[in-house]
Specification:
The protein is mostly helical. It is 81% helix and 0% strand.
């Protein structure tokens, strides 16, 4: 298998970071979904159910907003790092131009 150039290596690192963050987020969300279902099943009144649902929706929006911000940070830093490595890997040396 051919070696990765610096841009490909940076892109792969960013992709792995996004995949890791996605899996952690999904795992946490599934756990919260299960806990919410259990809380809903334990409700004794319609008002309790509404409260559980409202808290769930509020927490869900906060979680997705936070995850989106994290993903954007990971992707922008990955793109930035890729561009930095590209600039250095393609920079010409002083003695590489024939006279």
């Amino acid at each position: 298998m051919a070696a990765l150039n610096p841009i490909q290596a940076q892109a792969m690192q960013a992709m792995f970071a996004v995949a890791t963050e996605t899996m952690q987020f999904l795992s946490a969300r599934i756990q919260q979904d299960i806990e919410t279902q259990q809380a809903m099943l334990a409700c004794k009144s319609f008002e309790e159910l509404q409260k559980v649902q409202a808290e769930f929706h509020k927490k869900t929006l906060e979680d997705y907003s936070g995850a989106t911000a994290k993903m954007m940070t990971i992707l922008t830093s990955g793109a930035s790092d890729s561009l930095k490595s590209a600039a250095y890997s393609w920079k010409r040396a002083y003695d590489d131009v024939p006279l």
